Amino acid sequence: MEDLSLIIQSAKEAFDQAATPAALEDAKAVYLGKNGSLTALLKGMAKLSIEEKRARGAEINKAKREVETLLNNRREALAREELNRKLTSESVDITLPGRTFGNGGIHPVMRTWMRVEEIFKTIGFDVADGPEVENDWYTFTALNNPPNHPARSMQDTFYVDMKDETGKQLPLRPH
Q1: Residue 166 · residue 139 · CB < 8 Å
Q2: What are the two backbone dihedrals, phi and then psi, of residue 39, each rounded to the nearest 5 degrees?
Q3: Does residue 101 contact residue 111 with C-beta atoms inside 8 Å?
Q4: Contacts 24+ apart (CB under 8 A), 72-77
Q5: pLDDT one-digit tens code per residue, 10-49
Q6: Tens digit of each residue's pLDDT (9 = 90 or more) over 64-104
Q7: From residue 94, how far is each of 27, 34, 83, 168 by CA, in Å?
Q8: How far is CA 64 from CA 52, 69, 168, in A?
Q9: Are 11 and 70 in contact (CB under 8 A)?
Q10: 70 CB-near residues (< 8 Å, 6+ apart)
Q11: What global pTM score does this model have?
Q12: Which of 4, 10, 47, 108 could in theory staple to 63 by disulfide, Cβ–Cβ 3.0 to 4.6 A?
């Protein structure tokens, strides 16, 4: 049987020589992998008696924990090295002005509305704009709509919960 201290020493040297995480995982496979040294020793314990299994199993598990500790320490060291390399290459000048953000753009619906207005202007129409909420006089009476006209009904015109100076509800500008 191989001396466990030699396996631990060999693993330490292999882990220290690994320059990348991938190389470290390859070195790990040599010792802790499916066909690794320590795994082979654990598989070989089937031939031993119960007393020998206890003693040898404890020794092998102790060696395995030491190799795993060495592996984890090297992983952390590689991560620190990578972080330091990244920090030195990506230095930031904090005296530079911050990034500016644009003010935004026109909403797609509004852009379409403006385009439709442009089209109608090119064929001779005028675009008129007015208030969205109007009083009853300008909406119906001045246009000779009698009080019982269907356009004044609640189904055809929307009213807001405000009243004009005569006490009538204010309608939204109808079609």
Answers
A1: no
A2: -65, -40
A3: no
A4: 74/15, 74/16, 74/18, 74/24, 75/21, 75/24
A5: 888 888 888 888 888 888 888 888 888 888 888 888 888 8
A6: 899 899 999 999 999 999 988 888 888 777 788 888 888 88
A7: 42, 50, 20, 64
A8: 18, 9, 90
A9: yes
A10: 8, 11, 12, 15
A11: 0.49
A12: 4
CA 41 to CA 18: how far, in whole Å? 24
Structure tokens belonging to residue 78: 């590689």
What are 65-73's contacts with CB under 8 Å, separation 24+?
A: 66/8, 67/7, 67/8, 67/11, 67/31, 67/32, 67/38, 68/32, 70/8, 70/11, 70/12, 70/15, 71/11, 71/15, 71/24, 71/28, 71/32
Query: Which residues lie below 8 Å from residue 114, measured CB to CB, with a gap of 6+?
Result: 106
Tell me: pLDDT of 158 over 90.
Answer: no
With beta carbons less than 8 A apart as the criterion, state whether 41 and 1 touch. Answer: yes
The candidate with the shortest Cα–Cα distance to 28, out of 42, 11, 16, is 11
The residue count of the chain comes to: 175
Question: Which residues are within 8 A (CB) of 46 and not within 5 positions of it... i.e. 6 or more apart?
Answer: none
Neighbour count for residue 77 (Cβ, 10 Å): 14
* Residue showing tokens 């204010």: 170
The amino acid occupying position 92 is V
